[in-house]
Amino acid sequence: MDFTHSPFATRIVEQVRSFVTERIEPAEADYEAELVGGADWTIWRQPPTMERLKAEARNAGLWNLFLPDAAHGASHANVEYAPVAEITGRSFIAPEVFNCSAPDTGNMEVLAMFGSADQQREWLAPLLSGEIRSAFCMTEPGVASSDATNMQATAVLDGDEVVLNGRKWWSTGLGHPHCRLIIFMGKTDPDAEPHRRHSMVLVPVGTPGVRIERMLSMFGACDEPAGHGEVTFTNVRVPSSNIIAGPGRGFEIAQGRLGPGRVHHCMRMIGMAERALEMLCQRAASRTAFGSTLDRLGGNTDVIANARIAIDQARLLTLRAAFLMDTVGVKGAMSEISQIKVVAPAVAQQVVDAAIQVHGGLGMSDEIPLSRMLAYARALRIADGPDEVHRALIAKLELRRQRAGWPAVAE
Amino acid sequence: MDFTHSPFATRIVEQVRSFVTERIEPAEADYEAELVGGADWTIWRQPPTMERLKAEARNAGLWNLFLPDAAHGASHANVEYAPVAEITGRSFIAPEVFNCSAPDTGNMEVLAMFGSADQQREWLAPLLSGEIRSAFCMTEPGVASSDATNMQATAVLDGDEVVLNGRKWWSTGLGHPHCRLIIFMGKTDPDAEPHRRHSMVLVPVGTPGVRIERMLSMFGACDEPAGHGEVTFTNVRVPSSNIIAGPGRGFEIAQGRLGPGRVHHCMRMIGMAERALEMLCQRAASRTAFGSTLDRLGGNTDVIANARIAIDQARLLTLRAAFLMDTVGVKGAMSEISQIKVVAPAVAQQVVDAAIQVHGGLGMSDEIPLSRMLAYARALRIADGPDEVHRALIAKLELRRQRAGWPAVAE
Amino acid sequence: MDFTHSPFATRIVEQVRSFVTERIEPAEADYEAELVGGADWTIWRQPPTMERLKAEARNAGLWNLFLPDAAHGASHANVEYAPVAEITGRSFIAPEVFNCSAPDTGNMEVLAMFGSADQQREWLAPLLSGEIRSAFCMTEPGVASSDATNMQATAVLDGDEVVLNGRKWWSTGLGHPHCRLIIFMGKTDPDAEPHRRHSMVLVPVGTPGVRIERMLSMFGACDEPAGHGEVTFTNVRVPSSNIIAGPGRGFEIAQGRLGPGRVHHCMRMIGMAERALEMLCQRAASRTAFGSTLDRLGGNTDVIANARIAIDQARLLTLRAAFLMDTVGVKGAMSEISQIKVVAPAVAQQVVDAAIQVHGGLGMSDEIPLSRMLAYARALRIADGPDEVHRALIAKLELRRQRAGWPAVAE
Amino acid sequence: MDFTHSPFATRIVEQVRSFVTERIEPAEADYEAELVGGADWTIWRQPPTMERLKAEARNAGLWNLFLPDAAHGASHANVEYAPVAEITGRSFIAPEVFNCSAPDTGNMEVLAMFGSADQQREWLAPLLSGEIRSAFCMTEPGVASSDATNMQATAVLDGDEVVLNGRKWWSTGLGHPHCRLIIFMGKTDPDAEPHRRHSMVLVPVGTPGVRIERMLSMFGACDEPAGHGEVTFTNVRVPSSNIIAGPGRGFEIAQGRLGPGRVHHCMRMIGMAERALEMLCQRAASRTAFGSTLDRLGGNTDVIANARIAIDQARLLTLRAAFLMDTVGVKGAMSEISQIKVVAPAVAQQVVDAAIQVHGGLGMSDEIPLSRMLAYARALRIADGPDEVHRALIAKLELRRQRAGWPAVAE
Predict the structure, then answer these.
(1) Domain stop point among B76, B108, B128
(2) pLDDT band for position A75 (50/70/90)?
(3) Is the pTM for the entire model greater than 0.90?
(4) Are D314 and A287 in contact (CB under 8 A)?
(5) B301·C396 Cβ contact <8 A
(6) Best interface-test mutation with C: which of D214, D362, D364, D380 has the largest number of C CBs within 10 A?
(7) How far apart are CA D37 and CA D225, in angstroms?
(8) Where in the sequence is the domain holding C200, given as residue range(s)?
(9) Quick check: is B176 in a domain?
(10) Where are the beta strands (DSSP E) in A34-160?
């Protein structure tokens, strides 16, 4: 049992922390000013500040750190990248600077693990270099996507082509000016057993029949220039060689894809919660009401203590999940991964909500990032599987594990 | 003890319910389409649909129902208007349709109770007729406004004029094209005892020195065409006859103003929570995952039961506060008014949050009103006094009441 | 809408409050001293103090107030008795003093509503006079009694006798030296539809085949001299005229029995919570730590405010349920009765737990009644139907009510 | 970062687990049967089963494992003993079997760290061998002991003697037939700075002037044969060489004493929570209501998932605190130790409460250990510093740490 980070992680965390503090945070205002926002996503553009920061990060060797793959990435463990991801959670723009932002990270992992040499040359290379971005089309508006077997979109083989039909939404990144690639998931064989029916297909943006309908508003924000897209696929035809790992392997790939992504999301949530707690403390120590600074009033010490406890517990739980992915694999860490997905967004929501309360009116405004943090944390209790689905899985695995030890069911 | 509404309330609630259901809700889409939104508030306009609905409501006699004042209003009790306010909470646009929207209601109450005949003729009349709208400028950006004695703005007498200086924000309604009147609160006599220092002053929008700086974003929404304004007052001069009830009575007026307004806000919260619960149930009963409708899955029955219990409790508590205002007055109902201010927004936030969760991605989007409801409920835990201040008051009154009954403090 | 008590209720509440304060509370220590406690229930006895207090209460006309039955009781409404029940919740011994303690109250209601003239003469009369006490045998150890259809005990007709077999537990009052009557519930016709299978039978204590096995410990207390019994029935024979209202009507009777009883329990919980809050406040105002009294430290003002809010809400909800029982009947108030059963014990548990925390070590000890109050509140989250069953019912009724208003299930 | 236990810990945990499962749990019923319980502590006796189990444990080398002191103990790290303590939390009698029960463990640590050679020979030796037991007298009935500077008892030097006066309570273990030693804390120099005023003194049980007044009931249990004593000291004289580490060092010693003890308590809480969760799952999987096993009804899957998450988080937090004590010392881990003290008892209370609910009436009874577990968990939210004091410390340390990084307090 050793709660210290490896020398590699310690070093890289310090470098990333300096980079975030000294280069990214001071550039946030420029980035915001360069944004072309609003509902009309067709005029969104990539802020030049982002490309400048990306170049700097790449030169500093702080690039693709998320990828524990000796061939393409940094050859480290998930548990070593996790504290790096935490730091990047402090700034909304930091993950992209380090080429570590969703959904590209998950898509690169899929291509690195399951892609053919051709697929890797065509798509993984430009993603790894940060030239292009990508989207992942799984969630659908017409059904409860919490049960992935509900998926209605189709990916039907027709000769040496595969024909895609369906409507997808909440495809994050689809509005980005650099988005070139969609990974689409659809049903190929309705007669196979439930988890062998679907395929994952690489679809270039711009393929005939792909129509981006609009960008969705998420708790009042459109998150430009990445956005969350709604998109229809109408008789979209691509070569069947665009199917990743062959027909029917969609769920298998999706399962593997989600483990690291959830650790990344959760660690970023923790970094965000830390920043919110800092803001809370600084505000509470500097505002005066009823003759005292806020940190000495009412239950605010309890609020601070509970936040510290909740954050520290969530971080430890997430690091453990990362450690288990490294040591026993995603499949062996299913319960632990679901646990962090329930905990980390809830903790972030709790701490950010408390920070807003201490900031009063300012906390609700867009002058400080708290209201947007709240939206992000709240959204993550739905995205990547709602809390309810994760809790159901945790309970099922707990009962299964316990049952194995019971001599016989007693009354 | 009688939990049935009076015949008057029962009748008026039914009329308002029909009006909301049959006229307002079907017109919401038109209203939205007519809005000119966005950050540039100077181009906001009043949707024609609103003026049409206002005329209809006025013709139907459903007008100024909030005002328990025989001279100007409907001559009923607060506890009779409360269930009406609940119904109007179902639609964001309903309160204005019935000329019952904040902050006009509070401002009209102030003018009806404390205004001079001249003040009433000039400002109360056009507000009652729905011709103009108004704003209330109390909260300030530079200090913790939860402690109202922190207020820094000044209203200094100079001959027969009063000179106003200061910066205010979260002045709801200031961006409305019809906004003509500001009620400004500032310090007049810094040497008086703390609650006799401030005055309330009527300021026509457009008076030289009044500068509307911008409209604030509240959890990502600017709530056009009313908005939440930030405004500076620089050597603004108005006749001293514009002071309401004379210098130094600001706190006294503010105190009386807040009682009914809090009941209205809280009943609207409850109406909003009811609508959210309806949406939750309808969605849960119609979506299928893992072979079952959502209402039969996991803890969703608990979610529904807990929502029903929380709403019913909040409603009863709010009705009791209204009843006490009617029977013992605002001053005698201070604890009870603070209690509802803590409870009703929290219940609304809880139920709306649960409804969002059951709706998945749709719940986060702007296709349905849940995300905006969440923002409104969350904001009300800060506006009109943050939860913390109300809980502190409740505890103080509880301890005072109890102490009165203790023989002597025992160890 | 009127939140004031009727003149009758106001008067009787004041009388009962004085009686509790001036006669019962000062006698509690005597009562405790006269108890013969411990696990051996066969030596339990009725403290003479109780009989003295009962005589005084009866002379004062404060007797059988629970019974809204002109023939036998006080001819008042449930909503009028409710505040009386609250006061009696302040002292563990008060309900029996006024002949208003469970399970006798429910048993008397059953006899008053469903009993034959003979049954009333034999059993109702001595119960109303306080001469004897009684028990109610429904819960069984071998099955989940939360689902009453699980009940395994049998009450089989054999000629003009009915033969009882089965094991029951948590039969409160069975250990009382005055306990003479058991109301037993068992299955008579296994082929009837589920809620017509069971009968309720009057069984004199001492009937051959009735064997009291032991008194159960409830969170460490045996609650002498009433106790919670485990009892077996082995071929117990009583005349079939002992069946209340005829065979197969057990569930129907049980349903009606539970409404008033739940209101009583819940109001007593509220009275208990009020007393705990008083103790909390008095302690917090008189103890000093870190240079301040506890009521000014940390989150204690929040604790007090939240307790006040929770108690007031629970009381209003319970009064409404009582009012609905009076006006639309138990059947029409099913959801509301289940709501209070979920809320009131939970509120009592919350407030008592907080009071214990403020009392530190003293709060855990048996020098003050808080630890026993905690046990009582916690037990009531299981007794009379666990929270889970009540929430399930509330949700079911909510969905049913809502469905009635839906035009068609939309997606 | 490594979440696996050391080979030593892994091996010893397995041995202890087998011993607990195979020898202690089967002997629990014998132990209970041998107890002489009740309020009269003077007739309590040590069950022979305990002495038999102690001998077996000692022979198996599973003895004094708590002591990370090469001279007297097992020469391991706190983080290695922690998982052992967890296992012993499964059975109320296990800690004493392994000579690892409070307050002896803390007293032995004090003697090992601060005791003179004579003190160690006289008292540490027989404690390490399990011959005698001991008590720790710090908490007082008359003041808020949460603020230790409130302590009123005195330990005044008089020549080569020290004279003790005062009243102490909640002195756990004082009723044990083997209790021979009291460690008493009292004020020596009222003029020294607050944390240098008190001394810790070794007092043989039986010294004239030491009067054990009674054993306290803790949530209805007297926890025989150890008990929780109230004791008076009246002009008790012992040699001044009985002062540990010299006059005025009481707080310094107490501080060091509490770190490991809190880790032990918290790990035992976690072991207890694990056992409760096992009982919950087994019951839920085997009971049927409304046509389904309980584990499939209502929110029970959420209950199980939330319990799993809470336990795992609490365990990780506690292991981290133990690791920090090993690496940076108690002083450097003050916040982390307070964090676990808040979390672990609360988690145990939550899980045990849920397990009781699933067990219905059985859960409240003394047939299964859940109700006693609830009392133990609840008590620990007060003992060793109430939650409030720990949260205040955590917040203070958090604000201090953060302030160190702020450039200047901004508004």
Answers:
(1) B128
(2) low
(3) yes
(4) no
(5) yes
(6) D364
(7) 7
(8) 133-247
(9) yes
(10) 133-137, 154-158
